[in-house]
Write a structure and sequence with these properties.
Blueprint (H helix, E strand, L loop, with lengths): L1 H8 L4 E6 L5 H14 L6 E4 L5 H17 L4 E6 L5 H13 L4 E5 L14 H11 L3 E6 L10 H13 L4 E6 L3 H13 L5 E6 L5 H11 L5 H7 L6 H21 L4 E5 L5 H10 L6
Parallel strand pairs: 1-2, 1-8, 2-3, 3-4, 4-5, 5-6, 6-7, 7-8
Helix pairs in contact: 4-5, 5-6, 10-11
The structure holds flavin-adenine dinucleotide.
The site of flavin-adenine dinucleotide (FAD) has 23 residues, from strand 3, strand 4, helix 6 and strand 6.
EC number: 1.5.1.54
Cofactor: FAD
GO biological process, one term: methionine biosynthetic process
């Protein structure tokens, strides 16, 4: 009851939505329907991911341009440094600024298998972007530690480096272990990181795909989550209801723990993110 009271009195929650560039006309339609559905919730920003090859890059630019042209939303492109020279990145940064982009999600990106570690990190990209223009910058954080980090402490120091280089907030990798997120937030505070550690919420509808993602990113899938989705492989309708319930419960606990900003990995679908926002009291016209 106390939790519900707190939720009903919350007026200061911020949400943001992440999309990826569609690769087919059908997926493009789904994306625009989702953007239209989620826009009235007045997200603080929406972000568009960035692929590692140039064809996909252009798609990111196109989505950003269309969001700017057709909506009031602040659109933040993701940008990775692994496959671009500093000169190319500077040029892109200037181009984005000219197009009205004021917020960038700055990432290293994944080093392609078999390639040597370029020894350039997201903190270098934050510095480079800040040298070009006074962008608002979000960076990535890993409550369960980035798979390549030499230790949890080294990873935390890297996050601090990114914030000290000028990043305004960290968005976390998705997680289901709420305690791990809360411990990580405490460790960030203890390390002197004052920026918001915004939880990245992944509403789950395709559990088998989630297991693959989680394995790749080394995210713990707790037993309770297995239990929730067990037996539903051939039942997408029930999976969706269960996925909404799981995410709503997680978001409520996080809100109770004082989290004020939520980032949703929408996978270009509005339904679950919309339902979670509704449960948090984030509604059109509020
Ligand atoms: P960094 O912060 O540079 O860290 C990478 C690794 O290097 C970590 O293990 C870190 O501890 C280590 N490290 C950092 N500095 C040093 C140093 N000086 N010496 C030694 N080790 C160091 N990928 C995409 O390709 N496109 C996207 O659009 C995209 N969006 C994402 C959005 C979010 C919110 C998140 C969480 C991830 C996203 N990713 C995306 C994935 C991301 O690119 C990968 O996780 C990548 O492997 C690391 O990127 P980073 O920016 O966290 O790297």
């Amino acid at each position: 009851e106390a939790l519900n009271e707190r939720l009903s009195s919350l007026t200061d929650l911020n949400v943001s939505f992440e999309f990826f560039p569609p690769s087919t006309p059908q997926m493009e339609e789904t994306l625009w329907e989702s953007i239209q559905r989620l826009s009235p919730l007045k997200p603080k920003f929406v972000s568009v991911t960035y692929g590692a090859n140039s064809g996909v890059r252009d798609r990111t630019h196109k989505v950003i341009e269309r969001i700017h042209a057709e909506t009031e939303l602040q659109a933040a492109p993701h940008l990775t440094l692994v496959d671009a020279s500093d000169d190319e990145l500077r040029q892109l940064a200037r181009q984005y600024w000219q197009q009205g982009v004021r917020h960038i999600v700055a990432l290293r990106g994944d080093v392609p298998a078999g390639q040597p570690n370029p020894n350039r990190y997201a903190s270098d990209l934050v510095t480079l972007l800040k040298e070009e223009h006074d962008f608002e910058i979000s960076v990535a954080a890993y409550p369960e530690v980035h798979p390549e980090a030499s230790s949890a402490q080294a990873d935390l120091i890297n996050l601090k480096r990114k914030i000290d280089a000028g990043a305004d907030r960290a968005i976390t990798q998705f997680f289901f272990d709420i305690e791990a997120y809360l411990r990580f937030r405490d460790r960030c505070a203890a390390a002197g990181i004052e920026a918001e550690i915004v939880p990245g919420i992944l509403p789950v509808t395709n559990y088998q795909q989630l297991l693959k993602f989680a394995d790749f990113a080394k995210i713990r899938v707790p037993n309770w989550l297995h239990h929730m989705f067990d037996g539903l492989d051939d039942d997408p309708a029930t999976r969706k209801l269960v996925g909404a319930n799981v995410a709503i419960e997680m978001a409520k606990v996080l809100a109770k723990e004082g989290v004020s900003d939520f980032h949703f990995y929408t996978l270009n679908r509005a339904e679950l993110s919309y339902a979670i926002c509704h449960a948090l009291g984030v509604r059109p016209g509020v």
